[in-house]
Amino acid sequence: MKRLRNLSYDIIQTYGNGLQISLMIASRGEKPDFDLPSNVIYKKVDFQKNFSDIHNNIVIEKKNFPFCYESTIMTLKFNEIGMFDVIIINEVTHEISDLTEFFKKLSLLLKGNAPIVVLSRPKNPPLPVPECCHLLWRKLAPSREEIINYAKAAELSYTCFSASVPISIDRLEWEKILYSGCFPAVKNTPRCTEKAIRDYCNTISGKVAFEEKFNIFLLKKQ
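Structure tokens predicted for Methyltransferase type 11 domain-containing protein (222 residues):
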């Protein structure tokens, strides 16, 4: 019972004050098997074909527990996605069929003058991946000019700049990252099998060192 009281207190502290939510992760991957912080919500989505996963309401289920310090616990049911202070798109690619419409839909989820932050890797140079992935990498990666045009068509103002971060990682760890399929060009290249990844990584001695380059866009409603 003490554990339930503490749990109810945590939930009310997190969600009860004006329904404040720190972070929602919307990903097409499976939810990780490690515990997420209490203020993080995970929602599996797929924006490749349509944007039906984008909505703007939150369903609240109320339950009464007379033995708790507070009489009501609010359980959030994320059947839909709510309003945000900022939306960060970790990596945008041409896997999304209509980026203009995508940006328009996302802009409806912003509070006031909140921004959309878009991170995009340039077409060249790609990350250290097997050569068979390079063609698809360049095909999937939108250029800076393309993203600017999509933002303009969505009637969003934009600011753009570039960043470069030096990366150094153990070869075996990098191999695991490539196996995970987190890079679309690696995941979707038929010839990029586990053997191809293993053979590629075996050609690397020591650590994998490179500069991680990003184009970063700050989009806002006009």
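The chain has two domains: 1-82, 85-222.
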